[in-house]
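Hi U.,

Before I forget, here's the chain from the pilot set. I'm dumping it here mostly so it's searchable later in email.
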Amino acid sequence: MVPYAPSGPVLRGELSRAFGPATEARVGFTYETDAPPMTSAMQTVALRVLTPASGNVFKIYLLTRTSGITVVEQSFPAGGGVNGIFDEHALGPPIFFAQRQRIEIEAKLVAPPRLTVTVDGKVAYSGVANAALVPGSVTASVGVHYGDRPSGPITAHIDDVAVYVK
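Structure:
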């Protein structure tokens, strides 16, 4: 649980595991968020891909807003800058609040890159990912890995995590 935080630094509370270079990554987990945060948004459960040659970072994560849960593709160019992308996708079937569901996020990192999210075994989103998603070193992360202030409170139950990297 992350309490309500009106000010201060970015919120974090996660467990991460780094893997080597990959062309495909998938994280599956049982997920339940009791209720939406009162304000702002929280990022939970992520796949991060670092491209060693360029230093670029690409993230795919669940974004929990007051209005619901979506999946986001976000890139961070090496050295910072504002040329990154932020693509947010609605999920259908949705991830419901106060209900345990099995979620899988799968990323194919070879051209053309592809992102697929399933909810309880049904495809909730599938599409060609941004071209910035290329093979690289993968890190899987569960928990709250970013929350702007003011934010929270939020309780996320994440169990039965399985990661596949190829």
